[in-house]
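Summary of Year 1 activities. Much of the first year was spent building the evaluation harness for sequence design. The harness presents a backbone, in tokenized form, and records the residue chosen at every position. We chose the following record to illustrate the format because it has been used consistently in internal testing since the harness was completed.
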């Protein structure tokens, strides 16, 4: 067991973090989570996802009192009206947010105080595949580029190690780079 010392580093309670890790090591069944989202079409390219409940640590989580609502759309050039970022842009957001959170946690665990973490992501896509006008290009991104700029109270090499470790532990980075099986069901009325 890790000795629990409550230190707030990078906004993270490291004592709670290490206690959580120890608990999951001792009771691996607590590591089973299920995240959920529901989506509704609102017209044209506009749709809205609602995210609230999830399953965690052996039961349904009830800590969220309000649902998150995320609107998606398409830019005018793709027949939308800019009602929100398009789904590919949300993927870039997820791919930025997850490693960023991992960087903060890894740095906190390694006693690195961060001053800033910024990232820029680019996703290159030939939309002919998604639009069905050419079977040659894939439907999604052909390449994604991620650039991090991290500053903190550690040498550059240590900051690079934090980013490398965080990338190895990022759930979204893993899902994007390794793929994940997706089962699709359809109900009709």
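For this record, the design step produced the sequence shown next.
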């Amino acid at each position: 067991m890790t000795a629990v010392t409550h230190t707030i580093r990078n906004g993270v309670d490291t004592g709670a973090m290490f206690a959580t890790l120890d608990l999951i090591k001792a009771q691996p069944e607590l590591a089973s989570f299920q995240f959920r989202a529901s989506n509704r079409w609102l017209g044209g390219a506009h749709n809205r996802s609602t995210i609230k409940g999830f399953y965690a640590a052996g039961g349904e989580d009830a800590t969220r009192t309000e649902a998150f609502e995320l609107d998606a759309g398409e830019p005018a050039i793709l027949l939308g009206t800019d009602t929100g970022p398009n789904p590919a842009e949300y993927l870039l957001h997820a791919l930025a947010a997850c490693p960023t959170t991992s960087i903060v946690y890894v740095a906190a665990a390694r006693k690195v105080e961060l001053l800033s973490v910024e990232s820029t992501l680019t996703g290159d896509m030939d939309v002919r595949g998604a639009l069905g006008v050419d079977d040659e290009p894939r439907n999604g991104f052909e390449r994604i580029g991620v650039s991090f700029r991290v500053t903190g109270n550690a040498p550059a090499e240590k900051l690079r190690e934090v980013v490398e470790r965080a990338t190895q532990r990022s759930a979204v980075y893993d899902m994007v780079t390794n793929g994940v099986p997706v089962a699709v069901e359809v109900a009709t009325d």
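The chain has a mean pLDDT of 95. Quantitative recovery figures across the full test set are reported in Table 2.
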